[in-house]
Amino acid sequence: MKKIFLLLLVSLSLSSCITTQTENKGSFVSKDYTKSMFVISDKVKPGMSKADFISLFGKPYKTGFYLDKDKVLHENLYYKEQLFVQTWYIINSVFHFENSILVSQEQTDENRNFVECNCSSKK
User: Is residue 117 part of a domain?
Assistant: First the structure.
């Protein structure tokens, strides 16, 4: 009985740590596993401030920026999501800001989480 309790306690502890780490790194699992959270969200609007965007979706897992010749600050915020379309995928959404105002969004890399395996064939 002690072993079962200990196993249950360890499992719960590890799963809560994984959730916290994932949320803090700009990575999400959409509530509708087949659609991007950013695509179905009616909260993403061109013209919104970077501060409002981050308050809604949290800190990104990666950022980039540059200052152009007209002294316009261009910033990119990168977020990851897991989607299920017959298999699990990780997609990256990039949000482009100019002087801290959202001007565009794009989806970049799509990577399969799992590679299909023909496990019955052994060499």
Answer: no
SS3 letters for 10-58?
HHHHHHHHHHHHHHHCCEEECCCCCCCHHHHCCCCCCCCEHHHHHHHHC
Token readout for 29 is 């699992």
pLDDT tens digits for 55-107?
A: 988 899 999 999 999 999 999 999 988 877 777 888 888 999 999 999 999 88
- The answer as to whether 44 is a domain residue is yes
Number of domains in the chain: 1
118, part of any domain: no
What is the span of the domain harbouring residue 100? 2-112
Q: By C-alpha distance, which of 117, 25, 31 is closest to 78?
A: 25
In sequence order, what are the beta bridge partners of 58?
none
